[in-house]
Every structure is written in structure tokens, then in C-alpha cells.
Amino acid sequence: MSACAIACCPGHLSGYFRPIYGRDPGSTGSLGAGIVISEGVTTTVWISDITKISVERRDSGTGTLIEALTSAPPVEYMLMKMGVTARVRTECSLPIGAGFGLSAAALLSTATAVNELFSLDLSPFECGAFAHEAEIVHKTGLGDVAACMGGGRDCRKGAGIKAVIDRKFDLPDTLCAVVFGPLPSPQVLGSPEAMARVIQAYPGRCPRNAMDFFHLSRKFTIGSGLAPPEVLSALSACERAGIPATMTMLGNGVFAFGEEALHVLSGMGDTYILHPAEKGVHLVEGIRK
User: Fold this and answer.
1) Which residue has better confidence, 68 or 189?
2) 155 and 215 in one domain?
3) How far is residue 205's CA from residue 223's CA, in Å, rounded to a whole number?
4) What ranges in the chain are assigned the alpha helix state H?
5) Are 33 and 18 spatial neighbours (Cβ–Cβ below 8 Å)?
6) 4-50: pLDDT as tens digits
7) Do residue 195 and residue 52 come from a single domain?
8) For residues 94 and 32, what is the distance between their CA atoms, to the nearest angstrom?
9) Backbone dihedral angles phi then psi of residue 80, each to the nearest 5 degrees
10) Do 108 and 33 have their domain in common?
């Protein structure tokens, strides 16, 4: 087996956001608040004469393959911009395209592993810039890359990966999410009408605490008009049970915290237990022969 490098990146739950359109990808992104989650992706990169991408979703308990993709245009674009060809395998356990920030996690973990394997001597911010550009160009996200560079409950105060981000570590050990199906980010981020509603609904400040985060996020969900009927139904059920909950942005699902969250959400769709992340993207192993 040829040499490889392995990096891990957390995922991200976005509660609310406001797009910022700059003069280039580096100044384009979003303000907003979310939660970095330890359930993200692990990416292995090998030097190769040609670029070959595989994305594998596996059951977290059994390791059984659930879903496999053989292309990822944002990752291929980023490798080209970094000036390398490589074989890349990204593994995750959460559903793809469901609002868990896995596109950003795949890009950021790949950039981190590529930097190590090819001895590019890039800083973490330079790796993040490559990942962020790919995400912006392909409209798969706006602020997830910046968020995933660290852990905790984040509030992004500017666009791009060098913006100030407040991080708080005040959440309980577990969260619960329910997924009703995919909600492709490009369809929403590429819609001027949808983005106009998002801008209007943006609350304009960082949350004061975890409960305020869910309050502002739920208000944004309703005001933005992005929530499908099943999301609104799940949010109503959580409200009746006194459970703080909001929509996964951008995904057809809901996340919540509280002892009763799993009980309320488990009968509605595929549910997942999630954990707030203590740190952002990092190498799992350096170059391994």
C-alpha cells in the first residue's frame, strides 16, 4: 500500500444564517450560528497519477455500507486548485445532503490530509480557504467550512474563514436529529427568492446562550419559509413537549436537545444521536506507509 494521510473533520448543524456576497469566494460566505458536531467524516488520501474520489456512508454500529458515491465535483475542483492528483476516500455515518455540513467536512478533511501528504506547508487557514472556495463555487454551503475549523456552538460574525467566530461550549452531551429526506443546498443557495427571505428573517445577533440559540433558530426557520411541512409538524410536536428544537439548515430535518427529544422524534423518521464537538478538523495520522 502506498503512503497515505488521514484527517477527520466534524460536521455542522446550522441554526440560522445570512448570506454575504463578496467580490470573490474568499469574501463570500455567511453570518450565522450553529453547532459543530463530532459526527463528521474521516478522509484518507493517497498520491495517485489520476484523481479518484469515493464517498462511503456506513452504519455507525456495524460498518455496513449504506451508500457510495464515485464523484464529488467540489473535492475534484479543490484538488485541481491545490495542484495535486490523488485518490480520496471519505467515510461518514450520517446521511449525505441532509444538513449536517458533510460537504464542508469532506472538503476540509481532504485539504488537511492533502497538505500533509504532499508536504505543501499550508497553514490551517490556507487549507480552509481552498475548502471554502470549493464550497462557494459549487453552492454546497456558505459558512460550514469556517465553523468546522473549531468546535463548540459557533456564531460567525463575518464571511469567509478568517472572520471572527465566537465559540461557546455550553451544550449537553447529546443532541437528537430526525431526517425526512435530502434538501439539496444548491437549489436553495442558488435561488434569489429564497435568499431574499433568508436575509429578511435573519435575527441580526448572536445567541445569548443555548436556549436562545434554539429560540432564534426556530424563529428564523418560520420566517425564512424554508421548512417543509414535515419539519413544521416535528417542530410543533417538540414545542408541545417543551423541547428546544429547530430545522437543520439546509436539510429536510430537525435537531433538538433534552431528555425527551429522542422519544418525540423517533417515530417521525430516521433519528440520529449527535454530540457537540470539542475541536475542529485535525489529522488522525500523519503520513503512513
Assistant:
1) 68
2) no
3) 16
4) 73-82, 102-117, 124-137, 144-147, 185-189, 192-201, 210-224, 229-240, 261-265
5) no
6) 999 999 999 999 999 999 999 999 999 999 999 999 999 999 999 99
7) no
8) 23
9) -60, -45
10) yes
